[in-house]
């Protein structure tokens, strides 16, 4: 098999196949791989093929069906033509290959196995319906909704959302993905954190599957990556993502990126990535003002069936420092404490809860604070955490310390490892993955982590 010609006018790439046997063998065993490879390289084109077969005088000449498209060639054989639309993957053969009895080489539309469905990893509770609009997020929400409803195209691509922690960035991009899947259920939408992407890349390197890793991401229709600032000290990850970005952008797939700072402030990011991040729509989200916090509180209170007086709602909104995460944490605390203590949710009760839940001073959180609080909570010593013991009652608190340090202090994995007894980089990444996965699957464990964060005064 060889590439024969390419027609820019019809966007058709023609292959030359030496025999009917080879044509059938390729169709049966390699067609899907060939379609994906050519589509990834050339984008949306038609793949045409022709087969020249040596003429046999004994070959019947009246067995061709009306659909057969046969013409004589200079070498005394015949050429049969068919085409593939690489967008849909349907093999639409226009002919039958002539052998001693004519065989039809046709795949009906839809018979080709499309790419398997993937877990989009979207939070289905974070939708546009639950996203409260205010002055601080109105522009981002409007653009996000337009992208979700019209994902194909180059306008606002990539969309780069940045803003401080707790302003609703993750909720917004999840809402974009969820709405897109609702309207276009066959779209391959994927939400992934930058840290998760980096761990997948590291595993692919170890297993020698970098090409598979890149190939998978190049099949995504809408790629959403959160916290891209995590890559500032990972040049190899940046370089790999650059090639994925280039391919997706060229074939007009949607790319959405989230960061805690604008592209120009991503010191340590490759220049060619920064220019591409800045080349679409850079949208800033601000911390919600008091009125938006009040509106968010009212929505969450209604959802949870609580009865909280207006002055109490205002007090909470004025003390959460513009953090939506703090709002959710306080609501969870109010529910828990009101049930345990059998108390009414009045202003005095809420003042006590808010004081416990929110860090009101300007003291900087350190990993020593995390180690101390976690050790106290799980009744273990700092020496045990930093020691060689691998008992479950020691390993779990150690992994939680790594997770909290990574999430809230933004420490490099190598430094976290040194602070918990000299663990290596891969051990830390493995621990982060385990704890994040456990939080997703175990609601009780998730509440336990939230309790630790509140005790640390984390916003």
Question: Would you give an account of this structure?
Answer:
With 459 residues, the protein is of the alpha/beta class. It folds into four domains: 2-104, no CATH class; 138-284, P-loop containing nucleotide triphosphate hydrolases (Rossmann fold, 3-Layer(aba) Sandwich); 290-357, Helicase, Ruva Protein, domain 3 (Orthogonal Bundle); 367-455, DnaA protein, C-terminal DNA-binding domain (Chromosomal Replication Initiator Protein Dnaa, Chain: A). The protein is built from 18 helices and 13 strands. Strands 1, 2, 3, 4, 5 and 6 form a six-stranded mixed sheet that branches. Strand 1 (2-7) and strand 2 (12-17) form a beta hairpin. The protein is globular, with a radius of gyration of 29 Å.
Short description:
With 459 residues, this protein is of the alpha/beta class. It has helices spanning 20-29, 31-42, 138-149, 169-183, 194-207, 210-217, 235-250, 271-277, 290-304, 310-319, 324-341, 347-357, 367-378, 382-386, 392-408, 413-419, 425-441, 443-455; strands at 2-7, 12-17, 46-54, 70-72, 77-85, 90-93, 96-97, 103-104, 159-162, 189-193, 222-226, 254-259, 281-284. It has four domains: 2-104, no CATH class; 138-284, Rossmann fold (3-Layer(aba) Sandwich), CATH 3.40.50; 290-357, Helicase, Ruva Protein, domain 3; 367-455, DnaA protein, C-terminal DNA-binding domain (Chromosomal Replication Initiator Protein Dnaa, Chain: A, Orthogonal Bundle).
């Amino acid at each position: 098999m060889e590439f024969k010609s390419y027609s820019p006018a019809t966007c058709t790439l023609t292959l030359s196949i030496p025999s009917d046997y080879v044509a059938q063998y390729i169709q049966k065993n390699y067609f899907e791989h060939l379609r994906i490879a050519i589509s990834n390289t050339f984008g949306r084109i038609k793949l045409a093929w022709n087969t020249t077969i040596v003429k046999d005088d004994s070959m019947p000449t009246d067995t061709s069906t009306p659909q057969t498209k046969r013409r004589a060639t200079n070498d005394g054989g015949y050429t049969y033509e068919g085409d593939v639309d690489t967008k849909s993957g349907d093999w639409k053969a226009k002919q039958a290959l002539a052998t001693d009895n004519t065989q039809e080489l046709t795949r009906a539309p839809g018979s080709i196995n499309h790419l398997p469905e993937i877990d989009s990893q979207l939070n289905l509770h974070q939708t546009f319906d639950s996203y409260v609009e205010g002055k601080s997020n109105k522009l981002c929400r409007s653009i996000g909704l337009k992208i979700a409803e019209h994902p194909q195209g180059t306008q606002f691509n990539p969309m780069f959302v940045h803003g401080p922690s707790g302003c609703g960035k993750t909720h917004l991009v999840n809402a974009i993905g969820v709405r897109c899947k609702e309207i276009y259920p066959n779209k391959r939408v994927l939400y992934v954190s930058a840290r998760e992407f980096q761990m997948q890349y590291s595993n692919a390197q170890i297993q020698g599957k970098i090409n598979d890793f890149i190939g998978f991401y190049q099949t995504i229709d809408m790629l959403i990556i959160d916290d891209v600032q995590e890559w500032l000290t990972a040049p190899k990850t940046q370089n790999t993502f650059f090639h994925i970005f280039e391919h997706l952008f060229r074939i007009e797939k949607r790319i959405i990126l989230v960061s805690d700072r604008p592209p120009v402030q991503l010191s340590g990011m490759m220049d060619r990535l920064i220019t591409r991040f800045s080349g679409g729509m850079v949208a800033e989200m601000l911390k919600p003002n008091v009125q938006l916090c009040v509106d968010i509180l009212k929505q969450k209170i209604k959802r949870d069936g609580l009865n909280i007086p207006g002055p109490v709602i205002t007090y909470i909104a004025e003390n959460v420092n513009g953090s939506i995460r703090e709002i959710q944490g306080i609501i969870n605390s109010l529910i828990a404490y009101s049930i345990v203590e059998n108390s009414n949710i009045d202003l005095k009760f809420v003042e006590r809860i808010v004081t416990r839940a929110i860090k009101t001073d300007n003291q900087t959180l350190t990993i020593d604070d995390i180690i101390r609080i976690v050790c106290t909570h799980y009744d273990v010593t700092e020496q045990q955490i930093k020691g060689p013991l691998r008992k479950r009652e020691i390993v779990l608190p150690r992994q939680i310390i790594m997770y909290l340090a990574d999430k809230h202090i933004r420490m490099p994995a190598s430094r976290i490892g040194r602070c918990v007894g000299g663990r290596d980089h891969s051990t830390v990444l493995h621990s982060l993955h385990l704890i994040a996965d456990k939080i997703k699957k175990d609601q009780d464990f998730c509440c336990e982590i939230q309790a630790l964060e509140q005790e640390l005064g984390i916003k």
